[in-house]
Write a structure and sequence with these properties.
The structure holds two protein chains of two kinds.
Chain A lengths: L1 E4 L2 E4 L7 E3 L5 E3 H4 L3 E6 L3 E6 L1 E8 L2 E6 L9 E6 L13 E4 L7 E2 L1 E4 L11 E6 L4
Antiparallel strand pairs in A: 3-4, 5-6, 5-13, 7-8, 8-11, 9-13, 10-12
Chain B lengths: L1 E4 L2 E4 L1 E2 L8 E4 L5 E4 L6 E6 L5 E6 L1 E8 L2 E6 L9 E7 L10 E5 L7 E8 L2 E2 L4 E7 L4
Antiparallel strand pairs in B: 4-5, 6-7, 6-14, 8-9, 9-12, 10-14, 11-12, 12-13
The chains are: A mainly beta, B mainly beta.
Chain lengths: 135, 140
């Protein structure tokens, strides 16, 4: 077993690209496979834990924003997420669904939550992750 | 056991010293993660209306339009088995997030060559304007 103790890994041929041998014989890419940001927040009011997230915003019920510390390179980045259901026993009126706000940008995105097909809703635990290219 | 200590290292390829074990990456909290297990093996954001197109993607060679609200994301490099994990979201059917009930789910058992996804609005399959997902698991 060997240990490499370093602070930065950078591609030699291309600074932003390092190949990593996958589980089988195929290679994958270190930079592309890393989540560039993730967030655990309470309804846009407080950050429970995060990575590359500078701040969150509460625009209204279920309508939130998250801002990156280091911006993305374009607006085609990927956001995935989930949320806890509302208080009480599971029912058709208190499900927790993660959805996107309008227009993700290079500086942030909208981790929004809804309860059903007609009502936005705040949720106490909202989780999201962002993949794509950093600027 | 060898230890190399430095600040920066430039490399083109990283391959751990055994094909059967993963490389351990120490974390800030003192625990450890592993490469490549911790890396997403594919991700995609696509417009499912009209002719579906991936706006941005990694390790995806194409998207297939199977039917309304039914797509297949085809991998560039295949997964090793059908037991990988996928997650994703869908949006944009109604044009207004606040009154939408867009969601995305896996439509058929996962394949090593790709994943078939369905998107729906309320109770019916629907093409979504903005959907996204990621794949975690073992590459072939």
């Amino acid at each position: 077993m060997s240990t490499l103790v370093i602070d930065t890994i950078q591609g030699k041929t291309t600074a932003g690209s390092v190949n990593v041998r996958g589980e089988g014989s195929n290679n994958t890419n270190l930079q592309q496979g890393l989540a560039k940001s993730w967030l655990n927040m309470n309804a846009g009011t407080s950050i429970t834990d995060s990575f590359n997230t500078s701040s969150i915003s509460d625009f209204g019920t279920g309508d939130h924003g998250a801002a990156f510390i280091n911006s993305m390179n374009n607006t085609t980045h990927v956001q995935v997420g989930s949320t806890i259901k509302g208080p009480g026993a599971p029912s058709s009126s208190n499900v927790g669904l993660f959805t996107l706000g309008e227009g993700p940008s290079t500086t942030g995105y909208g981790p929004c939550t809804v309860a059903n097909d007609t009502n936005a809703a705040d949720r106490s635990m909202v989780f999201s992750a962002v993949f794509g290219d950093l600027a | 056991m060898s230890t190399i200590v430095g600040t920066n290292i430039e490399v083109t390829n990283i391959k751990y010293d055994s094909d059967t074990t993963a490389m351990i990456v120490s974390s800030t909290g003192g625990g450890a993660g592993t490469v490549p297990q911790g890396l997403a093996k594919a991700w995609f954001q696509f417009n499912g209306t009209g002719t579906p197109t991936n706006r941005g993607s990694f390790n995806v060679t194409s998207i297939t339009d199977n039917a309304t609200g039914n797509y297949t994301q085809v991998f560039t490099n295949n997964m090793s088995d059908q037991n990988y994990a996928t997650s994703g979201i869908a949006g944009g059917v109604s044009g207004n997030w606040a009154d939408s009930l867009d969601h995305m789910y896996v439509a058929n058992p996962c394949l090593t060559t790709g994943v078939q996804l369905a998107s729906s609005y309320h109770t019916g399959l629907a093409d979504t304007e903005r959907s996204a997902g990621q794949i975690s698991g073992d590459l072939a």
